[in-house]
Each structure stands twice: as structure tokens, then as C-alpha cells.
Design goal:
- By secondary structure, this protein is α/β, with parallel strands linked by helices.
- It folds into two domains: 6-81, no CATH class; 92-368, Rossmann fold (3-Layer(aba) Sandwich).
- The chain contains ten helices and twelve strands.
- The strands form three sheets. The protein has an eight-stranded mixed β-sheet with strand order 5-6-8-7-9-10-11-12, sandwiched between helices. It has a two-stranded antiparallel sheet with strand order 1-2.
- Helix 9 (315-327) links the parallel strand 11 (304-311) and strand 12 (332-341).
- The N and C termini lie far apart (50 Å).
């Protein structure tokens, strides 16, 4: 059985919801059977065996508190994922169908808040979605945002949930790239597709009036594309947005041993000591400077906004790449939301999601307006 990229494994937890209620490796943990004492033991290899009791913090919205407090993951129209137990196995096609349904519902929720027009198109032969905000200002007609969606490199998991609020709040058109997916098309197919679209946009837009951004796999891809643009000697965009991603396929960050898709709840296997992400990386050296931009020359990368959250499985990946950018002299800003989980800004019902989207949009407006 082939391996999967780390973000893909977490998305499969979501995708397995349809079968998880029927099959489970263990019975759900209850208040009666769950460990309650605060314990910590570090073995001879330095591995920590730990139990912590973590209340829902009052520093987040009432809506977010309810999400964290609920014992199962609630997704409209999708069966609940139990709080404990391994997800049931399913095919990639089944998983993609469920993730597609989730993405469609997330997009629908954002469309109730944000007024946009959406059209399907192709740019440089690559399928794209173009999201135009209602009330596009004359000052922003010469600007464009390029979105690289999340989805573990194997799913189209969030092109519209990532594009609709940003287009609406920034009042700038967003082009979201429907790049080729692994495992059918491993690295560097997604990078190549994004580069092709970017090069075509350069025929119409000045590079300083383009920003590239993404969430999860799309955030990682954003960093990869920036590294590739620099390697090719192409003009760099005016700004980047790396929202819960990573720049290092060769090493596993600490947060991946602590948090799953839903933070502290749900099934989570210990991470492998040597990450194996061959569905996406194929036979590429895991320290390749484009695949893992943390190993590239990052000097001259444009101003970049990093956004993550305290219970994000990719918290380590995001902050480690942020530090690498800072060390290279990049204007890199970091926002970490307390307690919230991976990609929480997909959920239009959360006040923090709207706040995060405004932070992202405002950053692009300021950077592209210089």
C-alpha cells in the first residue's frame, strides 16, 4: 500500500466519516474510561507518554467553544466521526466524493455571507475558478490573488472556501488553480500548473500586483511555487500567504504528534520517525529546495503572512518555515489563533474564521497597494 502525504492522512480522517460509525478499531472513550490524572513520562529514547486534562478555554468565541466541546465532528450532511477509534478504510474515489461534499457545503456557507460571482475557466490550459467580488473597485482591477487550494495534494478540498471570503473582503479578484492531484500526478505537477497560470497572469498584471496564497497543502505549495519562481529567475509576486502549511518534508514537527484534524480529539497515530510522503513526493529527494523550501535560498522572498492555530497539526510546520523566512531577512508576519484547529477559517460560522479572513485580505490589500 502506497504512503500518503501527512495532510492527506488527516483529510482521510474527515473523509472516513461515512464509514467510521460502522467500523472502529476501539470503542469510544468515555468519561468513565478516559484517563483523568495529569501524567508525564519520558522514556530512554526521549519519547513522551503524556496525559493532560485540557478545559475548553474562554479566550475563544462561544461558537468555537461549542465546536471544541462537542465529542464528535459535526459536518452538515456528513455522518459524525467518533471521538475515538481508527477511521474505516475507503477508496480514494470514495474519499474524494466525501471531501467534495464537505467543500461544497463550506463554500455554500461562505456565499451566504459574501457576495461574489464564480466562473469556471482555463488559464494556460490549467482549469481554474475565477472568483470576482461584488463591488470590485476601479483601483483593484489591476490586481489579482492566486489561490492554491488545500486538500492534502490529493483532494480539491477548499478552493472556494479559501477564495470567496478573501475576494469579498479584499475586493480583489481571486484565481484559484485546480492543479493536478497526487497520487496520479505527484510532485512537481502541482507546482508546474501553478507556475503556468502565474506566468500567464504576468502578461496582464504587474508582479507586484499579484499575491499567491493557500491553506494546508496549498500553503505548502505556495512556498514551493515561490522557491521555484526564484529558481527560474521569474519576477516574484508582491506578497505570499502561507496559512497552516509546511516547508519541510524531511522532518516531522512536534505538533503532528499532538494534534489531529480536530486538534486534541479523535484518533491519532504517533508520527513516523522518518516521514514517508511518496504519494506526493514520489522519488524526489525530501530535501529538494523546491519540494522543501526550508532548504532553499529564501533571501528576497516577498512579504509573507503566516497564519496558524494553537491546536493545528501543522503548527510546527508553519512556525518553522516562518522562522526560516525571518532568518533570510524576509518580511514575515505570524498570527497564531488560540486553541483552534487546522484550517478553522473554512468554517464560516466561526467569528474567528471571519476575523482570520479579514486579516488575510487586509494584508493583501496593503501589500499590493504599495
Amino acid at each position: 500500500m502506497s504512503s500518503m502525504s501527512r495532510p492527506t492522512i488527516f483529510l482521510l480522517l474527515l473523509a472516513s466519516a461515512a464509514l467510521a460509525a460502522q467500523q472502529s478499531a476501539s470503542q469510544p472513550t468515555t468519561a468513565a474510561t478516559g484517563p483523568n490524572p495529569d501524567t508525564s513520562y519520558i522514556d530512554a529514547q526521549g519519547t513522551v507518554h503524556v496525559t493532560r486534562v485540557v478545559p475548553v478555554p474562554k479566550t475563544i468565541s462561544a461558537e468555537a467553544q461549542r465546536v471544541l466541546a462537542h465529542p464528535v465532528l459535526i459536518l452538515p450532511g456528513i455522518p459524525d466521526i467518533p471521538d475515538q477509534g481508527s477511521p474505516a478504510p475507503m477508496s480514494l474515489d470514495q474519499s474524494r466524493g466525501i471531501v467534495d461534499a464537505y467543500a461544497a457545503r463550506a463554500a455554500e456557507a461562505w456565499r451566504k455571507i459574501c457576495a461574489v460571482d464564480i466562473v469556471e475557466d482555463r488559464i494556460a490550459g490549467v482549469p481554474v475558478r475565477i472568483v470576482r467580488p461584488k463591488g470590485l473597485t476601479e483601483a483593484n482591477r489591476d490586481k489579482v490573488l492566486l489561490n492554491l487550494h488545500g486538500g492534502g495534494f490529493e483532494f480539491e478540498g477548499g478552493s472556494l472556501a479559501e477564495s470567496i471570503p478573501i475576494a469579498s473582503y479584499a475586493k480583489i479578484k481571486v484565481v484559484t488553480v485546480l492543479y493536478r492531484l497526487a497520487p496520479e500526478y505527484p510532485f512537481p505537477a502541482a507546482v508546474d500548473d501553478a507556475i503556468s497560470v502565474y506566468k500567464e497572469l504576468l502578461k496582464t498584471y504587474r508582479p507586484e500586483h499579484i499575491a499567491i496564497y493557500g491553506t494546508s497543502a496549498g500553503a505548502t505549495l505556495t512556498a514551493e511555487v515561490a522557491a521555484k519562481l526564484k529558481q527560474l529567475g521569474l519576477p516574484l509576486p508582491g506578497a505570499l500567504g502561507i496559512f497552516s502549511g509546511s516547508g519541510d518534508f524531511a522532518r516531522t514537527g512536534d505538533s503532528e504528534a499532538l494534534f489531529g484534524l480536530r486538534g486534541l480529539s479523535g484518533h491519532l497515530d504517533p508520527p513516523e520517525s522518518s516521514p514517508d510522503d511518496s504519494d506526493y513526493t514520489a522519488r524526489t529527494d525530501l530535501k529538494d529546495p523546491v519540494l522543501s523550501p526550508v532548504y532553499s535560498d529564501l533571501r528576497g522572498i516577498p512579504p509573507t503572512l503566516f497564519v496558524t492555530s494553537e491546536r493545528d497539526m501543522l503548527l510546527s510546520g508553519t512556525v518553522n518555515l516562518h522562522r526560516a523566512y525571518l532568518s533570510a531577512g524576509v518580511d514575515a508576519r505570524l498570527v497564531v489563533f488560540d486553541a483552534l484547529t487546522h484550517g478553522f477559517w473554512y468554517d464560516a460560522q466561526l467569528p474567528e474564521a471571519r476575523e482570520a479572513s479579514h486579516i488575510m485580505a487586509d494584508f493583501f490589500v496593503k501589500q499590493l497597494g504599495k
